[in-house]
Amino acid sequence: MNIIISNDYDELSLEAANLVAEIVKQNAYPVLGLATGSTPEGMYKILVEMYRNKKIDFRNVVSFNLDEYIGISSGHPQSYYHYMFSRFYSHVNINPDNIHIPNCQGNDCQVICKMYDEAINAAGGIDIQVLGIGSNGHIGFNEPSEKLYVNTHVTDLAEETIKDNSRFFGKMKDVPRQAITMGVGAILKAKKVVLLAYGSNKANAIRTAFNGEITTSVPASFLQLHSDLTLIADRDAVSLLDISG
Ligand code: F6R
């Protein structure tokens, strides 16, 4: 694993944006796997700035978002659809036909999940997967559990995730209880994975994810199996990690 330790949030965001920009520039048809949440907000801001300064072109980019809540509409201010369009997609020249955000609100979820994985495969797989990490070690909405799923699926959110995400909804009761998420398979199949972690509330998750053990109770620990993983974190997030060796 390659570890980049940043001095502050701006530096973390810049490092992440540079890695994404490199992939966009290197590939004729770059396929991006994208995350939402607080952590990558700065990265999206910088990518938009790069686009405005004509340093990057998203014309041929294909994107796949990791996840979406079930139970709120795309138009809801806390939907990941709204997050992605308001912070990124609406501000760059990505072709709307190339944007993929999983979404199932009815009883057709199984079909939608299958189609999502097929679309990722048809695009040639993900060139760079950007991830955040939950304070409980989740990636996407692959929550700690007895078993994890390879493919895109519907999942119940863990209590800790509902609590963590209530900061966006105001009240615990308004946080959706379910989501659709890419599975661990598509994440591990990405050619390159970049995990972003910022702040002391991620320190324990980072410690348990990278202590040499792999367990479904810390889904991010499976990232240890990836051959091209970069962790970009501030000092607080890696404060419990033994990085001496
Ligand atoms: C979001 C996602 C989640 C977040 C994680 C960290 O698309 O898949 O796994 O990356 O919950 O969220 P923040 O960055 O808000 O701490």
Give a quick precis of the structure:
The protein is of the alpha/beta class. It has helices at 9-26, 41-52, 80-87, 109-122, 159-169, 184-189, 203-209; strands at residues 2-6, 31-34, 62-65, 67-70, 99-100, 128-131, 153-156, 178-181, 192-197, 229-234. The protein has 7 helices and 10 strands.
Write structural notes for this entry.
With about 240 residues, the protein is an alpha/beta fold. The chain contains seven helices and ten strands. The strands form two sheets. The chain has a seven-stranded parallel sheet. A three-stranded antiparallel sheet has the order 4-8-7. β2, α2 and β3 form a beta-alpha-beta unit. The site of fructose -6-phosphate has 13 residues, from loops.
Order of helices and strands: EHEHEEHEHEEHEHEHE
Low-pLDDT stretches: none
Number of strands: 10
- In helices, the fraction of residues equals 25-40%
Largest sheet descriptor? 7 strands, parallel
Distance separating the two termini:
11 Å
Task: Specify the structural class.
Answer: alpha/beta
Annotation keywords:
18% strand, binds fructose -6-phosphate, 245 residues, globular, seven-stranded parallel β-sheet, alpha/beta, three-stranded antiparallel β-sheet
Question: Which helices and strands appear, and what pairs or packs with what?
Answer:
Blueprint: E1 2-6, H1 9-26, E2 31-34, H2 41-52, E3 62-65, E4 67-70, H3 80-87, E5 99-100, H4 109-122, E6 128-131, E7 153-156, H5 159-169, E8 178-181, H6 184-189, E9 192-197, H7 203-209, E10 229-234
Parallel strand pairs: 1-10, 2-3, 2-6, 3-5, 6-9, 9-10
Antiparallel strand pairs: 4-8, 7-8
Helix pairs in contact: 1-2
